[in-house]
């Protein structure tokens, strides 16, 4: 199950990297937004996939009170969670690569909410991002499925080799002299433990 989930994540990364314009997918509440943003070729870090966390950040107590009142008023009777996506936004923030190609930072947009709503003046927006080139994510997310696949192939190969040479499936001991039960580990010829 974990192998399938990791494989689907790799597939999602590859699909996102193949899309043309900037694409974003957001999970939102009234207090924060968590999103995946895909920057296509032609942008500063192309192609780039990042996870972003956006939240309001009041600059003072008055702004914090105004924000809580606004959330209480606007969220009454509405859904607590939401999902939205968009394509083709002309701007976006991608952090500069810092360590092994990965980049992260937090940018504060001053008075972001106050520009559109005077009653929310002083409420800034904090935009935290963590990203890397698309091929980094593909390698990172494909490591686990490849290791699991390698173990499955190795297990099957060892099993086939031991069966073809009349060896114990559990420990590899030669069973030509004792075809019923392994003298080394006590396992039956089928690979299960011997009954006492």
Structure description:
- The protein has 196 residues and is an alpha+beta fold.
- The protein has one domain.
- It is 32% helix and 27% strand.
- It has three helices and seven strands; from the N terminus they run αβββαββββα.
- The chain has a seven-stranded antiparallel beta sheet.
- Helix 1 runs antiparallel to helix 3.
- The radius of gyration is 28 Å and the shape is elongated.
- It starts with a helix and ends in a 32-residue tail after the last helix.
- The C terminus is likely disordered.
Count of helical stretches: 3
Strand content: 25-35%
Which regions are unreliable across 5 or more consecutive residues at pLDDT < 50?
Answer: 191-196
Strand order in space, largest sheet? 4-1-2-3-7-6-5
Q: Biggest β-sheet, characterized? A: 7 strands, antiparallel
Distance between the termini: 36 Å
Number of domains: 1
